[in-house]
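Exercise 7. Given the encoded structure of a 125-residue chain, write a plausible sequence.
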């Protein structure tokens, strides 16, 4: 019985955590090395009802460089095309760096409803 209650409790916590999270993925697509000002193609899923805009930010986890980001009006789309907003694109000094993109779903009052992130490598070559 104890195990059943523990499993049930874990399932409830996991389902609540999943409900508050959003799926995010991206591919570099046509992104050019060294500060391409156009954002890469980004895909989102699980965006909650009431979302009016997506706030996006990219950082280089290999060097802690903040590449900035942008805000995009949300009208139910699941993908943001290359160049949906302007930022400072990837420019690793050497080797491969890992870049994190975080997307926040925001309502009309500015409240963050959910967020998600993804990471991809980008090579200096």
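Solution.
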């Amino acid at each position: 019985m104890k195990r059943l209650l523990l499993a049930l409790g874990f399932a409830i916590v996991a389902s609540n955590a999943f409900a508050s999270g959003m799926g995010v993925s991206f591919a570099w697509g046509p992104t050019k090395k060294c500060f391409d000002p156009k954002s890469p193609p980004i895909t989102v899923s699980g965006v909650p009802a009431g979302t009016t805009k997506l706030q996006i930010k990219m950082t280089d986890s290999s060097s802690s460089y903040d590449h900035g980001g942008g805000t995009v009006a949300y009208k139910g789309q699941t993908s943001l095309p290359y160049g949906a907003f302007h930022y400072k694109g990837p420019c690793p000094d050497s080797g491969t760096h890992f870049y994190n993109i975080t997307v926040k779903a925001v309502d009309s009052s500015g409240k963050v409803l959910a967020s998600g992130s993804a990471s991809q490598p980008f090579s200096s070559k």
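Remark. Residues 2-20 form the longest helix (19 residues). Students should compare their own answers with the one above.
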